[in-house]
Amino acid sequence: MATLRETSGDVPAVRGSHARKSVSAVIKSLIVGAACRGLIPFKLADWLIQRGGLRNA
Question: How many domains does the chain have?
Answer without folding.
Answer: 1
